[in-house]
Predict the structure.
Amino acid sequence: MRDFCADRPGKGTPSCVLDQGRWQVELGLFDGARQSDATTRTETWDAGDLFIRYGLTNLTELQLGVTTWNRERTTDRATGARDTAEGIGDLSIGLRHSLKNPDGSGLSVALSGFVTAPTGARAIRADGFEGGVLLPVSIPLNDDWSLSLTPEFDWVSNSDGDGRHAAYTMVAGVGRGFGQWNLGAEVWFSHDDDPIDAVTQSTFDLTAVWTPPSLPDAQIDFGLNFGLNNDSPDVEFGVGVARRF
């Protein structure tokens, strides 16, 4: 059986694929973010960010994801007026297929794609079906350090609900194991080419993963993200767990 490998934490996508017939459940227990500018302050909370993976073959896995509760509150800093939206998030279905080294060892490459259905609460869901394609790559730098890259192309809804446009994302990260712990750092860059209001975001993210000695098929993880420009959340923190069956 392959080494335990989870998508959590961080924004990058691993190149590993589950063994055939194995299940893995990954759950974001809590995630909170805050973003402020001269006029507004936006606070976002997620709980129950559920991601389920299943090994269809030794090279391909099926993925299912949904956020069970999301809340976003925007406050006008001048008047104190608040606008709140909350509810269940959209449902996503995806596949990941290994192109090289499905266990994630050595130079490992995979191709991943997903489709998101607008099943969430009215104030939160997307304006129609969306999707994306990713190419996760893992490169060993030496016996201790590894480099991961995740270029991504998405097709998403326009902010006015009429039509679709492209969005582009790149994540680059390094990681190292320290006994029961694995620590990592990532730089995330995303450009949403919305014809109404194009947005570019970037963050610097730190991650920590602890694997209990008695549970090699499980982990507890932590993430701390810092915005690198005005269009990104100022700070974000999350904690979650993952378990393979």
The CA atoms of residues 160 and 196 lie 7 Å apart.
